[in-house]
Write a structure and sequence with these properties.
single chain, alpha/beta, Arc Repressor Mutant, subunit A, 3 domains, five-stranded parallel sheet, 14 helices, 39% helix, globular
Amino acid sequence: MQNLLQELYKTDIHLEKFHFRKVFLEDKSYQINGISQCGKSNLVKNYLLGLKKSSYLYIDCNDIRIDIDALNIELNKFCNKNKIDTLVLNNYKKEIKIVNVSQLIICCETHIKLDCLQTIKLYPLDYEEFLAYEHKYDSTALNHFFQLGGFVSMHKLHNDERNLYIQKTLKLSLDAVEFDILVLCAKMMAQKLSPFSIYERLKQSRKISKDKLYKSFDSLSQKNYIHLLEKINHPKATKKIYLCDISLKSALSLDKHFGKLFENMIYLELLKSGVSSFYEDGIDFYLPSSDEVILGMPFADERTLFKKIEAIEAFIFSYGIKKVTAVTMNTEGGVNHPFSKVEMLPFDIWALGD
């Protein structure tokens, strides 16, 4: 194990052109949580390249040459001997003992309770981050975002390789039951879906216990491969399911529903901005903090928006809604309403706004 640590210590870190994210690292200890391929490794490597080479040690814990028992014996001694200030444990496993260094950075999918580490949740690229990868920002950028989604690696792949790449990545990151659940969630994107209904569907094609399915479903949620949206004032009601990235829809399903894909995009922008939201029948997203309703209406005009406002007027009055925003593909405008500001905003303007 000493030889392996020495090899890793001497190996230069390679990083292709890095586009800065909305989160960044300072001289603190962190745990960075996020799904596979969301950019955890690149974020850390970019930080390390700004440090003195002899001051850090980068270990990918997925390296099959690592014996965890031997690592636990040797790592602390190696760090002390070589005066390691910054230790990075990528793909961290809970069996690895934490060592005493000035700065510890661990990367893993799920959150680990360690009081000494500041937590960073990293998601796939949002629309603003995605634009940094575009050669020019024009009317084609949004369509390109629909095609690629938020995985950085998609920019390096040809069109015919992308879906298979996502499938391969997911199969390596998830167990068989988790993968099957995710496939079903992709078909039911932006719809109400309970673990029990998933169990009822999957048991027809594979042998599975309800307990195993519920644990796998919870695991997907904890690792943020799926996100669950609660109904306002009904925490026990069936939740709506959203995917971690819109690219999973085409990679895992043949079903086409642009409206649901568009709604998932809106949800992810809200999630990454830290805004708390809920759904109600007929209401895509209710934002209590701003008394606002967000509607996904990609091809709306003023006439269809007016009809939609009529249908949800009881909700507007009951909850004192001050603003209704219909997010569209490219239509901008609004309708008059006595109590709320009602407007249509194209997705790119809405997503890039404050």
